[in-house]
Amino acid sequence: MFELRTHSRRHFPRLSVGIFAILFLPRVAFAAASPHWSNDAVVEWAMQRVYGTRNTQFNCWPTAFANEMRFCMQVRYIRHVSRGGGERWYILASGDCRTLSPELQCTSIASGPGLIGAFAIALQAGKLVLTSQAAQFPAGDGGEAPRQWRLVQLGANGYYGWVGTETTGDSGCFTTDELMLAPDGKDFAEIGDIVLNVDNSGACDPSVPRCLVSFDARVHVNPVPAARVYPLEITYWGKDGGTTLHRQGMRVRFSFANWEYLIPSVWPGVGC
Questions:
Q1: CB 69 within 8 A of CB 97
Q2: Measured between alpha carbons, how far is 136 from 85 in angstroms, rounded to an integer?
């Protein structure tokens, strides 16, 4: 049977260094390069401020996580947005738990997550200001962080966030989730974690009745005019052995009290 499943919000620290599912998102119009700062200059400023000195040999920024795993963060995406006369940059960095060199060695078995760093930088009075950050967000599997991310407008008045996919599992059963990271005050918070796909075909014994479980979902960010944070429209379907979960939909609204999308308790997501 499909389990009733909701996700608990993951929390991550701010450092004080001185698939089978389809995702539909509204188009983001990115600004041309800033006349004040180049993207490279913004990256160097932000990453050094958060992680410290860059390792020039591997062109990445070392960081330790949970006092045992060492990562080296690399910038995967930077987006420049200009709105209402203001300029803002969004950076998405990632680091894998793997051996780069003796001083950057991952000392833990590489079966855990990788790390994601998400940052928002604003230009205020001609100076860069780090307005929101998540320096060490654990995501991914096998010691590797998710690679595919997209900056999405999630609300009116220029509320943007990163949306990516995370696949986890082993032994023939895999789950793909949609992760949504967006500013929450001075933090970059996980505001959504939605099951997009489950496939246990590699772990299912054909001799066991009703063994095969599959689940798929499509997510649409609905740009309701003037909404502070847009609602989500989710369509899902699947099969639980011989029982079919027929295609159906739901609207998921944003909870400002919890600062996240709250998936109803009837959400039939399953995991490995």
A1: yes
A2: 31
